[in-house]
Each structure stands twice: as C-alpha cells, then as structure tokens.
Amino acid sequence: MTLVDSVEAGRLTISELIDALAKDKNYTASRWYQRYRAFTTLLQQTSTFAEPETDDLVKRLWYERDNGIASIRQGVPSLAEYQQSLPLLRELTER
Fold first, then answer.
1. Are 74 and 61 in contact (CB under 8 A)?
2. Cβ atoms of residues 6 and 12 within 8 Å
3. Which of 13, 22, 33, 54 shows the smallest number of beta carbons within 10 Å?
4. Within a 10 A sphere around the Cβ of 49, how many other Cβ atoms?
5. Looking at the whole model, is its pTM more than 0.70?
6. Cα–Cα distance between 89 and 55 in angstroms, integer?
7. Is residue 37 in some structural domain?
C-alpha cells in the first residue's frame, strides 16, 4: 500500500504523511515545515476555538495570507467578510 493509499484509506493522517515523506526523502526541515509544525502544534494544543481569546489563532488560520500552512494567496476574504464570518469560522475550527 502506498502512502497516498494509506491516507485515502484513513490509516494515515496528512500530518503523518508529511512526516513519512520527510523521513523517506531525508529532507532537511525547511523553514516552511518548521512554521507548519509550530502552528499545527499550537492548534492541537488549543482545547477550544469558541472563545474570543482564541480569535488571533482563528484569524491566522482563516484570514492571514502567510499563516505557516499556506502562502500561495489562498482565497482570503476581506476583513469585513472575515469579521462577519467569525462565528462560523470559530465553529468550523472547533470541529
């Protein structure tokens, strides 16, 4: 079974796939990978995103153009659209 097959079968998470690929190809930890790891670890350590105290994390995840995960001009809403959608984005992040 390939790594992609393992992901599609639900036996391997995307995070585990990235780890496996990094180990398999002997990649050095790139700046992107370090930022990705730091941000995803921070997200995993956050127990809830439903409170205003976590709005900075929610904003970084859904609004900032270079958030540690993607920087290729993801479909970022305007600030007004983001603020209007904040309750929904909190709920989606919570899931």
1. no
2. yes
3. 13
4. 19
5. no
6. 10
7. no
